[in-house]
Structure formats: C-alpha cells, structure tokens
Amino acid sequence: MYAILDIETTGGQYNEEGITEIAIYRFDGHEVVDQFISLVNPEKPIQPFVVKLTGINNAMLRSAPKFHEVAKRIVEITDGCILVAHNASFDYRVLRTEFRRLGYDFQKHTLCTVELSQKLLPEQPSHSLGKLVRALGIPMADRHRATGDALATVKLFKLLLEKDTDKEILTGLVKFEIEKGLAPKLLDIVDRMPSRTGVYYIHNEAGEIIYIGKARNIRKRINQHFTDTLTKSKKIQALVYDVTYEETGSELIAGLKESEEIKRLKPTFNRAQKKTIFPFSIYHEETPEGYLSLRISKTDPTRREVDAFVNRQQAQNALYDITERYTLCQKVNALDSVETYCFPHSLGKCNGACQSEEQPETYNARVMEFLKTERFFGANLLVTDNGRTVNERSAVLIEGGMLKGYCYFDLNYQVTRPDILHNILIPMPANRDTTNILRFYLKRNKFKKILRF
User: Fold this and answer.
1) Which end of the chain is more exposed for a tag (fewer CB within 10 A), N or C?
2) Could you count the other beta carbons within 10 Å of the beta carbon of residue 304?
3) HSE toward the beta carbon, residue 226, CA cutoff 13 A
4) What are the distances in angstroms from CA 90 to CA 81, 110, 204, 251, 331?
5) 375/436 Cα distance (integer angstroms)
6) How many CB atoms lie within 10 A of CB 58?
7) Over 60: is that where the pLDDT of 264 sits?
8) Cα distance between residue 361 and residue 349, in whole Å
9) What is d(CA 265, CA 430) in angstroms, rounded to the nearest whole number?
10) What is the model's pTM?
C-alpha cells in the first residue's frame, strides 16, 4: 500500500516552514482506496512569493484546522504505507518536523517519483512535475495546489509502475510487507485478488517472484493454484508468501507482459515458458525471374520471417491455407518446400505472373500488401482495446510489423500525437513469441479497433 501525497507550505527558512495544505491518496497499486485533503492553519504568515505561486493566502487559513487537529487522520491514512511524493525528501521532512513538534516520532519508508522518473524515463529533458506530466499527456488541474499535484503524482506513479519492467518497486513493496511480518494465509490472498484481467506475480518469503501468470479472472486462477493437487502447484503452495498483480484490462497486453517478463525475470516455476523455440518459419523469397514466393525453411535468426511455427506440420498447414484460400497461381515442389506465386483473390485477378506476363514489381507490390493485411508483415498498426477502468483505453503499437510496446490513455490526443504516444509507451522486445501472440489475437478480432498508418 502506498500513501501518495503533496504538501504546500508557508515557505521560509529550512525546517521552519509550516504546512498550509495537505493532500494524501491511499493507493493500493491499482486504484485510490482512501483520501484526505485539507487546508491547514500554520499559525505563521505565508511568504508573499508562496501566495503568488499557490493562491493560498493568510485569510483562507484563519478558520482551517491546525496541524494537531489533523495529525491523527494523517497517521491513520498512512498506516502501513510507503510514502510516495514528487521530491519525497521535502514532504517527508516537513511532516516529520510537524510531528516532532507534537512529540511524535513519525517514520515511514519513502519513494521519490523524481528519482524514479530519472531512472525509468531518462529520455525526458525535465523531471519537474509540471513539465513531466505535460510531456506524458497526463491531465493536470490546480497546479501548485496539494490536490492537483498529488493527483498528478498518482497518475505519474501508476505509469512508473508500468515502466518498471524489472519489478523493483513491486518487489520492494512485498519486502516492506515482510518487514511488518504480515504473512497472509492462502484464503486471505485469494480474497484480495480482483476478478479482472491481468498478470499476477507469486512471491516467496524473501520477496522473490517465483511464478508469473496471466488470467482473464485473476482471483479464479489464483484459487486454482492454491487448490490444485499437481506437484508444481503443491510446491508453489508451500513457498508462497504473497501475490501481487497488475490489471491490464486487455487480454492481449496480459499475454505480451507474461511472455516478456518470464523471459526477463526467469521465475523458478515458469521453466516451460522461459524459452520457446520455433524451428520452422515461412520466408518470402524471390524466384530467379524476380517474383516473390513463400517457402518453408528452418528458422534462421538472421532473417525476417513471415510467420514462425513450433513444428513442420504446423508450417505446412499455414502455407497451404494461404495458397488454397488466397492464391490463383502456384507451383508446389514438395511438402516442406513450397514455392507459390501468392496472389490473393481479394487483391485482384490473375494478371499472368505464373506465365511471366505480369511485371515482377507490380506483382510483388500486391504480395507485400497481402502480407501486411493477412500477417501484418511490415505493417504499421495501433491496436486499441479495453483499459483498466471504464474511462481508460489500452493501445499496442506495431511499427514495420514489429511490436514496439503498449500504453494506456484517457484522452484521444495522447495516441494521436506521436511525441506523447512514444513518451507514455512501455517498450517491449519484439521476438517470435510476442509476434505469434499478436497474430493470434489479431486473427480472433478480440480488440476494439485497429488504426493503420
């Protein structure tokens, strides 16, 4: 659990500031579950430059509660939380100073979104809150007021959690829970899981991730893990300390994240998925006459395949499916080596390529258009789908037929402006696994919309 906060002060000398406004949002890593917002009477005048910056003046604070009147609520809402703030050292110092005046030792673990953004968004020219959220397309209101700045920090922190592909923030939270000695029982863990789509991470008592999975219903899948009698499930049940999760809203993003994070983090119980081999591929090649043809070959990592398969039979079935459904002109040499003049019905009639009557350049252009449409080979696509909330959408970016990454957006301009789109994009490596996951989902049409550009 996190307490994301922002504090406005009177200004003045170091360690002599007083709090004028405070906003705290209790955030469980997915949504805000509680909040506290209040003006505070600092019992001292506000510096003129601060009045001009925030709009908060002395008259507004005369009837506001003093710090000792809100202190109990601050302790309650931050209980068991890691404090998160933009320039956390400042907000934490001010809070500790105020509590020290009351004779209370206020101690918390902290996370600074300035430091996190510098690490996870190093390409950004500025890490000040205002400039950073503008560059990321995060809507912001009431700048330099506690509520506006804290809400922007919540949205920024949510993005940083996504950008943290090594899961250092997530693992740190679990270790924090371990320090508190909160070892939840299996039933308690299941009760905390959402019945929504996403990726889940099973941790052992050291906080290490020992298993990663995806599910349309996370709670149902975790319950299966904890009630299954298979040997692997029993080992997981014996070692599990906690389960964390990330809602994705989109099955496509859940599948892509699971595949990529298993390869990066190498959890103990994901042995079967750490490396997937596709030994056979379909490639497009030119015949001696200059016409493009499709051929099955053993996978060559140095070449760009049209499609990849786990066995020869699967590759043969796919190629014959293409030639039977979409071609008029073809030459079949052997089951595992099929040269075909690939000419889709949907792209026009036969103009005599099989008799060398159509120019190779014209014919090849039609073949490449077919590959972009049918196999998204070389295509530029933006696949939009469900988000994690009703008002949010997800997007997966494909450029040149290769996966680039995914993002979430609230406003259309975030995905129609390339500069903002690339800023909020969570990069993902393009490999045969992700390519085949994309092909599978695109064929099933389980998404909202595809934009071609």
Assistant:
1) C
2) 13
3) 19
4) 18, 11, 34, 40, 73
5) 10
6) 14
7) yes
8) 16
9) 17
10) 0.72
